[in-house]
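Sanity check. The docking grid for D-malate depends on where the pocket ends up, so I'm generating a full predicted complex first rather than guessing from homology. Inputs follow.
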Amino acid sequence: MIRINENYLKLKATYLFSEIAKRVSSFQKAHPEQAVIKLGIGDVTRALPQVCIEAFHQAIDEMAQDSTFKGYGPEQGYPFLREAVAVNDFISRGADISPDEIFISDGAKCDTANIQELFAHDTVIAIPDPVYPVYLDTNVMAGRTGSFVSGRYDNIIYLDSTRDNGYIPDLPKVKVDLIYLCFPNNPTGATITRDLLAKWVDYARDNNALILFDAAYEAFIRDETLPHSIYEIPGARDVAIEFRSFSKTAGFTGTRCAYTVVPSSCMACDSSGQKHSLHNFWNRRQTTKFNGVSYPVQVSAAAIYTDKGTVQVASLIDYYLKNAAHIREKINALGYESVGGVNSPYVWVNTNTDSWEFFDLLLNKAGVVCTPGAGFGTCGQGYVRISAFNTFEQVQEAMSRITQALKR
Ligand code: MLT
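Predicted complex below; grid placement will be based on this.
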């Protein structure tokens, strides 16, 4: 009989957000009278910006005529979108990134999951704790970890992000090859200053390491002193790959569009020490395994970079930030300590109790879904993440129910 990839046996049986969905669905079956409010998975609820809708319609009309119809597009994305991304997201911020270094894709989840294929099996990996589970699980699947013991995998260097270090991990004490970072952070909502990010870039340069920088939530940054991209830090383009997404920026979770920046100066070596371009390798991977994002979706994504699009996206983000501020205010008023929710759609709450117990309590007593911090790693134990992605009315209702349920 065919044999399975036994690395899958090391994984927890269910992916975090599937486990939550399962628990919510059985709660709903048992309590059909209770309207559940979802502040768990970071899934947007507001319609696409009007500019994106109009662009979508126009692109569909093009697909309706033989003369303007598009078949396969370039695997790396259409030049109009790569150009708009490079100019607006990087060059305008002083980051030296060119359109041909941008790879358009259907999601930052897939890209952060797939990128590990490029690296050797014995790569020494540093992963924050708590962390978006995709980075870790995909390395488990690829066989880069040992067994799961006391909540952690062997062969992974964990970077603790705790109250003591302000949820910004310290540099690794041992030499690592590959470092995952995410700012604004999922799940804690923490942000990183230019100076601290520069320390990571220096570490990577000094140790021939590579940083995988997930900036999927950069649109929520309102503090102009904070970097939106790692490439705003001098020297980063030689040692960092950055992931971005239109999901949270422009409500594209169901529409699917994202991009990954692989600068042509990013190198990795083979066992004989010879250097190879990661840009070329990622291009080779994408052209082999991916056929690009659909034309209408790319046209729609490009619309966010127009004058009108910029205004509409800002107001979309403002809406969710107002929700986040409301969550913070109400949870803090109950006497719970929290971080995030400023420059970020996630509020990270210290529950002073077991994460899953608190999750169950909110679900059973308030009919509100959050995400248990323990699902993001051992350092998340005792915390829950509350997401600001819902309507303001639902967030108000959720916080009033939580207040009733938790009043001490
Ligand atoms: C989250 O809730 O952490 C994210 O929505 C998950 C994702 O982007 O895949």
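Relevant for the grid: The mean pLDDT is 97.
Also worth noting: The chain has two domains: 6-47+310-406, 53-307.
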